[in-house]
């Protein structure tokens, strides 16, 4: 479905992505794992042509990606990267019109989506006045309004409480069950363990793991730690700070 091949985007400070290659097959739920600054967001922005790559190619259904293909895809952004002064209804309409959906179809979809996400009473509320969980649901409604074939989520559960995280991951799993292809970027490995069937790990701008993932027999954290290593704090400094009370 989507193939990223030898993609480069290096910034002046040396950060960025370097020779990134991986595929997202139709029907996959891909975990795109990496620490903050590893290159996840740069990869996504390059896919959606928000930034221009230095070299490499991106294909959709075996041809170089075009504007019409981007209309089949959706990017679920960080909550801070949306027009917060818009009302929920206005935001959904804005996204729908941006993707060429008729106003009548947007309205029908909006009613269904707000009801599905249990935020029917928030349609006239401004995005900036919503809680973190409500804001995520509003973004989800706008993301689904034009029924994309592929959705890329960037840290979708960031800043959510446990209940809201579980609810959101359940929605994502249900979308996948409906045949929607999904990639989720996250540094919260445990959340992706039970729902992913393909694993891509990026570190310092380079893909270091790219393979099918069996969430019943494999653990993302074990693969991650084997490849990158586990960061161990200096416990002696804690002893020193508290006057070595553990030995008293």
Structural account:
It is a single chain. The chain has 248 residues and is of the alpha/beta class. The chain folds into 2 domains: 2-72 and 153-247, P-loop containing nucleotide triphosphate hydrolases (Rossmann fold, 3-Layer(aba) Sandwich); 81-148, no CATH class. Helices cover 35% and strands 24% of the residues. The chain has helices at residues 40-47, 67-70, 88-98, 103-116, 132-144, 162-177, 189-192, 220-228, 235-241; strands spanning 2-10, 16-24, 29-33, 55-60, 63-64, 73-76, 150-154, 181-186, 198-203, 206-212. The strands form 2 sheets. A 6-stranded mixed beta sheet has the order 6-7-8-3-9-10, sandwiched between helices. Helix 3 crosses helix 4 and helix 3 (88-98) packs parallel to helix 5. The longest helix has 16 residues, at 162-177. The chain is globular and about 65 Å long.
